[in-house]
Amino acid sequence: MAGITKLWKRKKGSNSGAGNGTVVNGHDEDSRTIHCNRPDHGLFSYAGNKTSTRKYSWWSFVPLALFVQYQRAAYWYFTAMAGLSLAPFAPYSAISVWLPLIFVLVLGLLREAWEDLRRARGDRELNNRPIEWHDGNGQFVEKRWRDLRVGDLVRVKDGDFFPSDLLLVSSTGPDGICYVETMNLDGETNLKARQALEVTWGIDGKDERKLKDFTAELLCEGPNASLYTFSGRLKYNNAELPVGPPQLLLRDSSLQNTGSVLGVVVYTGHDTKSMQNSTPPPTKRSRVDKYLDKVIWLMFALLLAMATLTGVIIGIRTKQDGTDIWYMRPTESNPYYNPQKAAIVGIVGFFNGLVLYGYLIPIALYVSLEVVRVAQALFMINDIEMYDPASDKRARVKSPGLNEELGQVDTIFSDKTGTLTSNQMDFFRCTIQGVSYGKGTTEVERAAEKLGMPLGPSPRDPRPDSTRPTSRTQSVDNAIEVDTESLGPENNPYKEKGFNFYDERLLAGKWVQEKSAESIRFFFEILALCHTAIPEGTPEEPSLMRYRAESPDEAALVVAAKQFGFYFYKRTPTTLHVRESLRPGDPPRDQVYQLLDVLEFSSLRKRMSITVRFPDGRLLLLSKGADSVILQRVDRKRSGPVAETTRHLKLYGEVGLRTLVVAYKVLDEEEYKSWAKRYADARSIIGKERESRTEELAEEIEQGLTVVGGTGVEDKLQAGVPEAVDRLARAGINIWVLTGDKVETAINIGYACSLLRQGMDNLIVSLEGSEARAIEERADREGWSRDKIQEGQKNFVSRKLDDALQLVLNGHVNPRGTSTSERKISVSESLQSALSRSMSTKSSGANLSRNASKNAAGTLTRNLSVTNGRHSRNPSEGKIGVEMLPLVDGQKVGSNGEGLDQREWAISKESALTQSRKGPPAEPTEYALVIDGQSLAYILAETVLQERFLEVCINCNSVLCCRVSPRQKAQVTTLVRKGLGLHRLCLAIGDGANDVGMIQAANVGVGILGVEGAQAAMAGDFAIGQFRFLERLLLVHGRWCYRRISLMILYFFYKVCMMGWIAFYSNIFAYFSGNPLYNDWYASFYNTVFTSVPIVVIGILDQDVTPAEAFRYPQLYQSGQRGELFNFKLILWWLAISLYHSAVIFFFPLAIYSGLSAFRPGGQVAAAQDFGAAMFTVLVLVPNLQIYLAFHYFTWIHHLFIWLSILSWYLFIIVYGALPTSWSTIAYKEFIEVLAPSASYWLLQPLVVMAALLPDLVFRSIKSVYRPSDYQIVIEQSKSKRDSQHQV
């Protein structure tokens, strides 16, 4: 640490223990000095411990919150129009324009204030938490978190959270050990051990003198966001000692299973690592919102064109014949109508038009959208069908602005463990010294068999009956035969959480009678020792003992060791305690193993090891890890049963088990002493060099291993996963699984959960196959450099992608290659056949059947995507399902009972060319791409390979990415999201901290409220308790929200455009003078009162089909993917309707009133304000009644608000007209004295309504008969079914 060394010398004049010349963060200013138990009071100006997550302060709230509001371009327009209303030439009064704008802005500010106050309330609660603080006199007193300073000595008790980042001084646990839970930081629920430096163990909270006299100086790195690194030196009692992550207790983590600890405050407030990591999630906007912005700009362009036309015409007419129009007073000094200054008149006319036609852009739409989205979110949260009783969790909605995105999802990226599976790991099978143990069928096997795809034995193994599949699985060595009716997982008397193994050869102590008893004993000893699990419970009650492990599968292995007589019950920093009970009835015997080193598991290492001294004095290295990692480090001379273990683990993976290899190494005493010294030196290094150096030494000692056996742990599928995946696929959604499992495991999990299906060709791109290994073998023989090896592997991956692309494009139906708009030309056979079967069974549905026979095929052909080509989900009736068999020589072979081979392609050039020569198949072929993390690493590093990879994926129905890291998950998600463009929407779902990057990279992120913590749920836009709830979230709520929001926006533009067109018509007849036809308050309340509530109710409650029908016909979901309900054509259609309706509303009353010689009972003709009020009446009636034509689902709530909105107009004109003329102006007693007594006024209303709505009614009726939409067919079919049931 050069920087720390310089600082240390400068402050203390000594360079002792400077630390190998490494650096903390590379700069002096990035380090800090802390005087322990002597808090900083301004000497170094370190931050206080008070934290705030608020977006605003009291003085910045109004300007910053308004800045957030004005990020919408429409708000700038509304404000500009309000400013123009202050001009003397404005057609409307300023207050009628300003009040709606102020109302919208105040609502937005109140929402921002409410959210910020919620954050402030949480901050206040956190900052006021109590903590025991050392007062410097040997006593602990209560203090608030916010008052802590760097250097304070505090005491934290069991179950409490750490108030800041602390340096662990001492613990009530043995040897300075304490246990912390970091779930709030990384989502992991396992406990992690932290240990104080030995020199400070004796400083406890009981000895006042030691507390008072304790002083030390800590020099450490400055604040940073790295949760897993920390380096520094502690100078105490004239000694300088290195400190690292094991001595750091992070804020937001909690103390567990430890009485109390003492710690020194290192980082406070926003300098703590948790706060350094609390970056805000990425801002996401829905596609509908983005498209709405474009529509707003289009309407603004239209508005500018209309205003420009108004200004030009009035300028020209004023110059030509302005003096002849006496009523405009051209001869007087009139600056707004002076024939001598026509240009100024035109400019005034332009701005006048902007205000007059300004209702083309609806300000009320934004408020209505926010109200509707919040209400939709409340319905999702309170949906009892998405309540998970096991975890007592409801759905959560964090981003209501993305509600409609749930109805347009095209691709789903899913984690496997904890998302598709339950993350409940059970020890299920094992292989020891080449012998496989464990009976029964896994859940994956049962699920596959239920779907007609039972797993079978390898074709190289003898089969009891080669003519038909069997539900029995045989081990490779034929030593055992497993039958689903025998004892096993379903009726296992030894079953407990984490253990579902049954084999009479090993259970109940019978393993001691086996020929390889010593090897079996050693295998279970390794399981009992090689882990970092922490026991919770008393040694005298093994059945109640629980293990807090880094992962559920590690806990399952420790539970398995306990079941076989090796009961791990105690851990100290230097010892492991195991109680052996080898035979029933034998007295237990406690064994103490000396723990020397722990080489921890990481996603990069994919293995963990310990060095341990056995009670008999043997010094061993024990390892367990992924087969791809352990087998590379095997001693060629003393390899153990590598071939048999590999074959067994491959079979385990094929039936859905998670596998590990167990190995060991006998250590030479002198060799170990040398290594241990170098390892201790490496651990004392401060800075980034420590990690790389310790990894090199771990790699050194983990060579020359001997395989003992392997394990198979079952991760059960969540309930309803296969059905949910099947239904989502039939909805036209492409599903990707990104997992860390091996290829074989992922493939068979894919079959079990319906991701892979019968007849689907699986295209495998993997660097773990025989061809890829041949490259490595050649590299070993020829001594290739590392760069040349990587170049060869990259070329191999590129060639595989080329072969895959040629295969999926040559003569096959392209299920994903069409654009979103092109999907309209494809056929949904599954929905069509389901409807035809249902309609043909009942005579009462004859009329519908006739119509459907004529029109449904064409409509479905136009609207729904291919299901037999893209997601053919209907298995052939009466046929035996295709078996899933192991990969053999690059292919997976099976038989469907009729001699038809089904092949799973491991891609090769020969297969691609052969397929090309054969020409297109009779039936469309489905493809699934299976690719591993090593191949992805090369793809993600090169743009050309990314494009090729994306093209292959688009043409595949399913994609499985195996052996991928969390970073690769996020990279793949980002690649696909950007590659698919704006027309396809990606959703990511996961349950752990390793899924956060993927969730944030997708258009929509969904977190599972699982057992791996809440970090994924906190990072997601939505959160659910189980994967199966995703289908309801998408197919029901998502589809409804997309439909509601889309139709709501279209309807809003329809009704405001009517007012805009009418203002333009009236201005024509007013000589483009800008004089309004009606009172300005009519227009102000038009969007906010008279017509807004019914469409808001529809935006909250509208349903076209029921949830049951949405599940029965998931193809209906594809309307959102195609953007059928919100697109440019529909916008033009609704604008055309508004243009026609506005013409009828304006010119129909104009024709009637201009032709009447008398309007009032006294014989007076209609005045302009009379015509305006009468016309405005039908302007309120038509859009409210149009709802009955445009929508299909109505309840008493809909009817109530529609008619209340109409009634509100009549009440308003009565009450407003009764006000003094200074307020009501031209509306004074307009209804009571003028309109109500006139018969023509009441006759006008039904005539205009019928003239406006009748053509639309006829068109919609014809369309529903001859070109019905998908949902209309479903609705009619359901009505037919209900009618037939009533007749019966």
Automatic annotation (TrEMBL):
Gene Ontology annotations of biological process type: phospholipid translocation
Subcellular location: Membrane
GO cellular component: plasma membrane
Recorded topology in the membrane: Multi-pass membrane protein
Positions bound to Mg(2+): D415, T417, D991, D995
Domain of life according to the entry: Eukaryota
Chief place of localization: membrane
Domain P-type ATPase C-terminal, first and last residues per copy: 1017-1269
Reactions performed catalytically: ATP + H2O + phospholipidSide 1 = ADP + phosphate + phospholipidSide 2
Domain P-type ATPase N-terminal stretches: 34-96
Enzyme class: translocase
Family per similarity comment: Belongs to the cation transport ATPase (P-type) (TC 3.A.3) family. Type IV subfamily.
Protein name: Phospholipid-transporting ATPase
Natural source organism: Ceratodon purpureus (Fire moss)
Organism lineage: Eukaryota, Viridiplantae, Streptophyta, Embryophyta, Bryophyta
